Each structure stands twice: as C-alpha cells, then as structure tokens.
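Field log, afternoon session.

UNIT: design team B
ACTIVITY: writing a sequence onto a fixed backbone
BACKBONE:
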C-alpha cells in the first residue's frame, strides 16, 4: 500500500470524532443518494428486499438508520478501513462493523445484495474497487454510489493555474468514464450522471480546508509538498476573486457523480421496491 494510502487512512482516523460536524457536503450527498435508491424503488413493480447491504466507506455510519428504515429486515455490513470511524457507530443487532479496505473487500464473493457507498470512491483506484464490488455482489445485486466528478473545485484549479503548473487539485473521473469502467467490467444497466453543488465559504483558506475533508486534495506525486506561503495564499485569493459572490463569499463547486449498476446474472427482482 502506498504512503499516500496510509496518510489518507490516518487523516480519516484523526477526523473521526468530529467528522459529522464538518461533513456538510457528505450529508447532502447521502440524502441525494438515498433519493436515487428510492427512485429505483418507485420505478419498480417488484419487491426487492436485500438480505445483506454493504455500506462501503461507511464512515461514522450515517447511512445505517435511513437504510434500515427502507429495508427493515436487512443486515448491514458497515465497512471502512478506519477503525476510529467504525468506533463511532452505535451497536445495533442488524449491523456488523467490519474494518476492511475497499481495494480488497473482506466479504465472501457473491454475498451482497446491495452495495451502497457515499463519497468514498474518490479516494480509491476506481477500477480496482469496481472489480471488488462486483466480486462481492450476488448475481443481480445492485450498486448505488457517489463520488466526485471532474468539475469539482474548478474555481480553485483555475486560481492555482494562474500561479504555477503543478497539480493542486485531484483529477476526478468524468461520469461517462466511470460508466465506461463499469461497462468494461460487464456490469449491466449502468447509469452514471452528475450534478453540481455549490458551497460558499468565508475565505479561500476555508475552501482549501474542505479539500482535505472530501478527498479532493492532491495525491499526485508531482504536487508541491510544502506549506502554502502567505504570499502564495494572497495571490491565490486574488485569482479566486473573480468568482466571489455578491454577498462577498467564495464559492466552490463540487460535482457529485452517481453510479448505479447491476451485476449481471440472475435477476433478483431488481430494480428495487422498498418494503412498506
Ligand atoms: C468522505 S467519508 C464518507 C463517509 C460516509 N460514507 C458518509 O457518507 O458520511 C469517506 C470514508 O471512506 C473511508 N475510506 C476511504 N478510503 C477507503 C478505502 N480504501 N477502504 C475503505 N474505506 C475507505 C474513509 O475512512 C471515510 O470514512
């Protein structure tokens, strides 16, 4: 595992106790992802009662309660590579926490009916994780996930590009390339789309702090590893100025990408309908 991978894990473990206080975007993304699951249910005429749901990169387990509300008879495996994140999850008889890496998920092959994952994939090697998810799913099993898209933090990317040519904001896959990856791995019924969410901040420094929270900070080897000097920050703020809103705030755009796909094989009555 790379040093960067260990650093990501360490950063999440450190953030675990206060994660929910700062994770505004993540909470919004979670609500929208759950809406997607509901929409699938609405569209369907068949019941889908997933026996086992895997929440991959579950963090503090925010998704557990709404998932159990929708699927009251399901067992949920709440999986994350950070033990500190998993420790925040309240014990529940239908929930099993599991410390595991998304690149090598510690579940039996073909054991998961619904794979749910909110804003974890942008930290990972997408191809490897999609392959692992497919291995974990039962034939006919469904994946619903969110990740970050290519337009994420375009304002900051532009401001940095006026200063140097180093990569300061990660490169994220466009929705269509994520769909291509899934199709190349022979997933069925692949749907990938995206929407923009704009958050506003009091300063450019606040924008940069959020980078780390969502995994948009750069993991490229070529990135500048030193702290940003006050002079550079001032210059950055100057180039960011053109995006400033009328009420004096600094906007940051996040492109939320959704992927919905099915593992080919026996149709288990998908898409789903939530049990009344
Ligand atoms: C932005 S948080 C999202 C947490 C949760 N899904 C939510 O909606 O609040 C990303 C989570 O993914 C986990 N994570 C990142 N990379 C991972 C990996 N390779 N394997 C397992 N978990 C990972 C982090 O520890 C963190 O808890």
């Amino acid at each position: 595992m790379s040093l960067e991978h260990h650093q990501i894990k360490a950063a999440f473990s450190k953030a675990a106790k206060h994660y929910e206080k700062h994770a505004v975007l993540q909470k919004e993304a979670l609500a929208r992802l759950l809406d997607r699951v509901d929409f699938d249910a609405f569209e369907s005429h068949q019941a889908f009662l997933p026996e086992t749901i895997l929440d991959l990169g579950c963090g503090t387990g925010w998704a557990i309660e709404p998932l159990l509300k929708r699927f009251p008879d399901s067992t949920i495996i709440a999986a994350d590579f950070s033990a500190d994140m998993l420790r925040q999850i309240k014990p529940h008889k239908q929930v099993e926490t599991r410390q595991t890496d998304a690149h090598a998920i510690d579940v039996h092959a073909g054991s998961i009916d619904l794979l749910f994952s909110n804003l974890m994939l942008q930290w990972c090697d997408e191809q490897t994780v999609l392959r692992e998810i497919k291995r974990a799913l039962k034939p006919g099993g469904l994946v619903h996930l969110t990740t970050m898209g290519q337009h994420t933090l375009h304002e900051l990317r532009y401001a940095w590009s006026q200063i140097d040519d180093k990569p300061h904001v990660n490169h994220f896959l466009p929705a269509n390339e994520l769909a291509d990856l899934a199709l190349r791995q022979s997933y069925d019924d692949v749907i990938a789309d995206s929407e923009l969410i704009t958050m506003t901040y009091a300063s450019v420094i606040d924008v940069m702090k959020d980078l780390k929270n969502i995994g948009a900070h750069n993991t490229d080897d070529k990135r500048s590893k030193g702290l940003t000097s006050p002079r550079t920050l001032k210059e950055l703020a100057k180039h960011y100025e053109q995006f400033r809103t009328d009420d004096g705030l600094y906007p940051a755009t996040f492109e939320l990408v959704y992927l919905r796909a099915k593992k080919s094989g026996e149709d288990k009555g998908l898409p789903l309908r939530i049990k009344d």
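LOG NOTE: The two ends are 44 Å apart (CA to CA).
NEXT ACTIVITY: expression trials, pending approval
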